[in-house]
Design goal:
The structure is a single chain. By secondary structure, the protein is an alpha+beta fold. The chain is about 40% helix and about 10% strand. It is built from five helices and three strands, in the order H-H-E-H-E-E-H-H.
Length: about 120
Amino acid sequence: MRLLYHPDRKDISLAGVLYALGDPIRLEIVKRLATKGEQACGALEFPIAKSTMSHHFRVLRESGILYCRKEGTQHINSLRREDLDARFPGLLDTVLQAAGTCPAPPVSPASSVRRQQRC
């Protein structure tokens, strides 16, 4: 069995994360994982070839956005939210909010400072 590459937290780069999130299919994969949690590759259906989906999952995994584990014959994907938040605080939430997955944080009535809210 071939081992899948996952970069260490310290090796996750902002440029790599932004590149990976810059593709609409990859962004949609991240949005679905953020809202539904862990998913098998096959559960995320897109009207594209399986080889293309494999490429998108590899880019997301090697950029440090996804963690993939094998369970039987399936690959189960999850977001590396803790690692991403440690390296780039608030980045994932900001991207997901801009992509329409996460509602905007409420505005405090006492001030115009927005409260922190996680998706």
